[in-house]
Amino acid sequence: MRTFAMGRKWVTVSLWTALLVGAGSPLVAQAQSAARGQTLFEARCTACHSLDANRVGPALQTVVGRAAGTAKDYDYSQALAGAKHRWNRQMLLAWLTDPETVVPGQRMGFQVEEAADREDIVAFLTAKGKARASSK
Ligand code: HEC
After folding, report:
1. Candidates 61, 110, 128: which one to mutate for ligand 1, based on the most atoms within 8 Å of Cβ?
2. Interior CA angle at 113 toward 107 and 122, to 5°?
3. Disulfide check for 77: which of 18, 90, 107, 117 has CB 3.0–4.6 Å away?
4. Distance from C-alpha of 65 to C-alpha of 8, rounded to nearest angstrom
5. What is the pLDDT of residues 13-55, one digit of tens each?
């Protein structure tokens, strides 16, 4: 009987844990996506980009919400310097799918094949931008 009671309690606790930590929570899903995005960013983007300095490509920490082609002191292609959009989630996903269709004549020779990878990288950049904004 005692074992039975403990068993039930354990089941209740597990259910609550599953509800609180569970995959159903959008916040948890976002955090997981951003964490995976960081790994992808480090593996694929940092050959050319850093978050806070211009390298081969422009600094990307504040790219979400920024007007295209406007990182301070970065020498853009004419095409990207003349682009008129802002970088939101949709534009970044399109850019990572194929930069040339977003801004013909640009010079980032790189694409991300997998849709899930693109989503996670953009989630990471969005989280980074927010962290920067709130630490100012
Ligand atoms: C081979 C080098 C290279 C790699 C790898 C690369 N980029 Fe770029 N990226 C560039 C260059 C160069 C530019 C500037 C293009 C221009 O001026 O036309 C750029 C521009 C950008 C821009 C536009 C920023 C702005 O200020 O308008 C974004 C966003 C971007 N890259 C994201 C990424 C992400 C995310 C990754 C990794 C998945 C990545 N890039 C990988 C070279 C690279």
Report:
1. 110
2. 75
3. 107
4. 50
5. 555 555 555 557 888 898 999 999 999 999 999 999 999 999 9
What is the pTM assigned to this prediction?
0.85
Contact (Cβ atoms closer than 8 angstroms) between residue 33 and residue 116 = no
Instruction: Classify domain 26-134 at the CATH superfamily level.
Output: Cytochrome c-like domain (1.10.760.10)
Q: How many CB atoms lie within 10 A of CB 61?
A: 17
What is residue 53's DSSP assignment? S
pLDDT at 131: 81
For residue 67, the SS3 value is strand
Domain boundaries, the chain: 26-134
Tokens in use for 1? Answer: 């009987």
First to last CA, the chain: 58
Nearest C-alpha to atom 39 of ligand 1 is from which residue? Answer: 45
Interatomic CA distance for residues 124 and 55, integer angstroms: 19
